[in-house]
Design goal:
Elements: E1 5-9, E2 15-20, H1 34-37, E3 43-50, E4 55-61, E5 70-71, E6 78-80, H2 98-105, H3 108-126
Antiparallel strand pairs: 1-2, 3-4, 3-6, 5-6
C-alpha cells in the first residue's frame, strides 16, 4: 500500500509515527522477475584487449554483429579481440595553428606573390 504510515512504540511507551513506510518507491515498483518482464534475449560475452593489456568483456545479443574495435573503459585506447596483437594506440596529431593550415594550402612563392600584390594595392591607395 502506498502512503501507509508506520507507527511503533518508543522507550516511554508512546506511539511514534515513522513517516512514509515506503519512501523512495513509486507505483508499480517491486521485484521484477522474468515472469513480469518476459525472458531475456540470448546474450554472449565478447572479450576485447587494449594495448595496455586491459580486458573488457562486452555483453551483446547473440544475433548482434561484433564490432571490430571497442574503447577500453580504463584507459580509452581502442581494444580488439586478438589478445596477442591488440590495435595500436592512435597517433595523436599536434595542434595546428592557422599559419600551419595556410602553409599546407600555399607555397612560399604563392605567399610572396600575395604579399607583393597586397603591398602594391596599399601603395596605390596611399598614392605612392
Amino acid at each position: 500500500m502506498i502512503g501507509v504510515t508506520a507507527t511503533w512504540v518508543d522507550d516511554q511507551g508512546a506511539h511514534v509515527a515513522g513517516g512514509n513506510a515506503i519512501r523512495g518507491s513509486r507505483v508499480g515498483a517491486g521485484p521484477m522477475g522474468e515472469v513480469e518482464r518476459g525472458e531475456a534475449a540470448p546474450r554472449r560475452r565478447i572479450p576485447f584487449w587494449c594495448a595496455n593489456g586491459h580486458e573488457t568483456r562486452v555483453v551483446l545479443a547473440s544475433e548482434a554483429d561484433i564490432p571490430e574495435f571497442w574503447d577500453c573503459p580504463r584507459c580509452g585506447l581502442p581494444a580488439g579481440q586478438d589478445r596477442e596483437e591488440p590495435p595500436p594506440a592512435p597517433r595523436i596529431e599536434p595542434y595546428k595553428t592557422h599559419l600551419a593550415y595556410v602553409r599546407e594550402r600555399r607555397s612560399d612563392a604563392d605567399g610572396d606573390a600575395l604579399l607583393q600584390e597586397a603591398l602594391d594595392r596599399l601603395r596605390v591607395r596611399r598614392g605612392g
